[in-house]
């Protein structure tokens, strides 16, 4: 049996998320079902972590044990020939027996996109968060610096989070503007449930003038979810890369 890692790109619009669930079709389920259809082999596909319904990925990482005779370099072609067009396996490689997509990960990089103009987009409505009110780049840029470092992110975590500790390290947070879109790229050693979306929601409220850039420090101190910003919607979020 070989331990194979794959990198998967997907548009999460039509799915209930990455992980198999009872309430809808998951990306993980589609991949496993297609593999069984191709090879007759049932696999357990372990992902680096969940992405919610509507969230996208440039580079989700997953691994599985297989006895298939398909050469590893041909696995993406075989899978993609049978997958729906909104899921693609970009690469496959053989890993050691101790590799696990989730437990071997040292960090992740997420991207979040905000379309900031009066009218929404007919082409990108499932790919961005549309915010009508003008945003102040400088205010958001100042505020984002407070996130960098090791902090207790309780105020930026959903009440559904089951993590035993809310302390996480954000290594980098870059804000840029691409025409009418604000792009947030956030790299860290790990992320709590909805953490990126709450961080972005809070930064957008700062950009709208609803709270001050320095209020981030008070939120870390207070550790109250209700005091921080809204949870940005899922469609603007992308898992960019898993770091090993």
Automatic annotation (TrEMBL):
Keywords: Isomerase, tRNA processing. InterPro entries: PsdUridine_synth_cat_dom_sf, PsdUridine_synth_TruA, PsdUridine_synth_TruA_a/b_dom, PsdUridine_synth_TruA_C, TruA/RsuA/RluB/E/F_N. It comes from the Bacteria. The gene is truA. GO terms for molecular function: RNA binding; tRNA pseudouridine(38-40) synthase activity. One of its GO terms (biological process) is tRNA pseudouridine synthesis. Residues 7-103, 145-244 form the Pseudouridine synthase I TruA alpha/beta domain. NCBIfam families: hisT_truA. It comes from Alkalibacter rhizosphaerae. Substrate binds at residue 110. It is an enzyme of class 5 (isomerase). Homodimer. The active site is at 52 (nucleophile). Formation of pseudouridine at positions 38, 39 and 40 in the anticodon stem and loop of transfer RNAs. This is tRNA pseudouridine synthase A.
């Amino acid at each position: 049996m070989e331990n194979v890692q794959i990198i998967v790109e997907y548009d999460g619009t039509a799915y209930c998320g990455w992980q198999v669930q009872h309430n809808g079709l998951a990306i993980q389920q589609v991949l496993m079902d297609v593999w069984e259809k191709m090879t007759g082999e049932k696999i357990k596909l372990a992902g680096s972590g969940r992405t919610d319904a509507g969230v996208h990925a440039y580079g989700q990482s997953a691994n599985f044990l297989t006895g298939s005779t398909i050469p590893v370099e041909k696995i993406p072609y075989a899978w993609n020939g049978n997958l729906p067009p909104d899921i693609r396996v970009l690469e496959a490689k053989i890993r050691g027996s101790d590799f696990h997509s989730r437990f071997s990960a040292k960090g992740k990089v997420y991207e979040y996109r905000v379309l900031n103009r009066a009218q929404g987009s007919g082409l990108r409505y499932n790919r961005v968060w549309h915010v009508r009110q003008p945003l102040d780049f400088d205010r958001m840029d100042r505020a984002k610096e407070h996130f960098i470092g090791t902090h207790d992110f309780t105020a930026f975590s959903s009440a559904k989070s089951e993590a035993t500790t809310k302390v996480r390290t954000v290594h980098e947070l870059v804000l840029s503007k691409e025409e009418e879109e604000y792009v947030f790229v956030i790299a860290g050693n790990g992320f709590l449930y909805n953490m990126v979306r709450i961080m972005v929601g809070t930064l957008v409220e700062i950009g709208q003038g609803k709270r001050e850039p320095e209020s981030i420090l008070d939120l870390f101190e207070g550790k109250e979810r209700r005091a921080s910003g809204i949870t940005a919607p899922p469609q603007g979020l992308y898992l960019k890369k898993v770091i090993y």
